Write a sequence for this structure.
């Protein structure tokens, strides 16, 4: 099984997790604050397509976020990606990031070698490291931070294409 965890796709402190064939795990995060004219969070260009491709490749997707559950579900629903995710661990569900409790609850019993975390902050990296999983720093919103954190992560992705390449390498 492939698991993707922490996928901040469009707003601060939202993480996503993914699973494929009950074998591998992968995590993503992104800390952009992009809003439309109505003040609603929007996805990075290409993010929805990437999530759909991953889902089509049998990844099961999960959310780990420092945001509240209601806000998280609303934002995902507004961006028509809510249905892509299997489970959610939100700030109001227990101890917040970087403590890995949310990951532990969502991914209990899953082989940690089958997990890849993608994050965009020190807290994301620390949480993944504490949980004992590989981590990719998502630097498409801030290239400078990618350079700062490159020594704390397995990889740094500067755009979605590079991230998808890393996912394919990890789970070949």
């Amino acid at each position: 099984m492939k698991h993707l965890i922490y996928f901040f796709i469009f707003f601060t402190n939202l993480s996503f997790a993914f699973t494929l064939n009950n074998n591998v795990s992968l995590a993503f995060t992104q800390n952009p604050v992009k809003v439309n004219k109505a003040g609603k969070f929007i996805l990075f260009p290409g993010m929805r397509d990437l999530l759909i491709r991953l889902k089509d490749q049998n990844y099961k997707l999960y959310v780990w976020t420092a945001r509240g559950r209601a806000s998280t579900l609303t934002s995902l629903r507004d961006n028509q990606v809510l249905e892509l995710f299997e489970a959610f661990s939100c700030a109001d569900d227990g101890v917040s990031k970087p403590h890995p409790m949310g990951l532990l609850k969502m991914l209990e019993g899953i082989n940690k070698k089958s997990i890849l975390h993608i994050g965009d902050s020190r807290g994301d990296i620390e949480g993944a490291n504490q949980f004992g999983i590989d981590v990719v720093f998502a630097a498409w919103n801030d290239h400078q931070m990618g350079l700062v954190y490159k020594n704390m992560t397995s990889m740094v992705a500067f755009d979605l294409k590079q991230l998808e390449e890393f996912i394919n390498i990890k789970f070949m």
Notes: The chain has six helices and eight strands.
